[in-house]
Each structure stands twice: as structure tokens, then as C-alpha cells.
Write a structure and sequence with these properties.
- This protein has one domain.
- Helix content is about 70%, strand content about 5%.
- Helix 1 runs antiparallel to helix 4.
- The longest helix has about 40 residues.
Length: about 130
Amino acid sequence: MKTTEAGILTLVRDHAFWADEVRRLKTLGSEAYSRCESVDTAGEGSNFHSFGTPCLETVVNEYRSLKQDPYECIEFEEFYLACVDNDEVCCWCQKVREYKSQRVKASVRLGQIRSAITRIGRRLATEGGAT
């Protein structure tokens, strides 16, 4: 595989894009999580307090309790969708899962780009005799 300047620049651009995308999706997920309809908040700054448990956390805890039964074979996705159908998960917590799924895909892409950059760097080091 021949390394071209244009190819390296494309990798650098893609790296910046996907790093920003991961950061953006993480921020969106955090904002959505803080808007959960099951949580009440009061105060600001150091006096900020939240009361209640986010519905997504409640679903996860219920699933963990359910899985303690060794004969229970329901998968989390199936359990989660049943909870969504029963309106046990607010729209904000649904967005949290959506953003996390997108963030995982973006992180995988970012990892692939970093791997390609590392391979190019190693090849350049061996070809150029760099230390």
C-alpha cells in the first residue's frame, strides 16, 4: 500500500471529524439524560440536587433483577422495547440510548482511523529510518 500525502490528509481530516462527532454525541447524551422526566431537580451551582432515578437506570436495574433468575432468557433489547411500549421509558432516555448507539459507531470509526494512522507512521519510520 502506497502512502500518499492526500491519503494522509484525508485520514487527519477524518480523525478530526469523528473525534468531534464522538464528543458531540456524548454531550447530547448527557443533556438528554439530565432531562429525564423521572428526575426532579432543585437549586443551581453547588446547591444543585436531583431527586429520583432516571427511567433508563430503573429499566437496567429491573433487568438485572430479572436476570438473577437462571431460567430467564430474555435479552436486554427485548426487555427494553417492552418497557418502551409500556411507556416506562421517557423520550429523553430513549434519546440517550440512540445517542450512545451512534457514539459507539463513531468511536469504532475513530479507532479504525487511528489504527490506519499508526500503521502509516510505523511504515514511514521503517522506510525512512526514523528513530
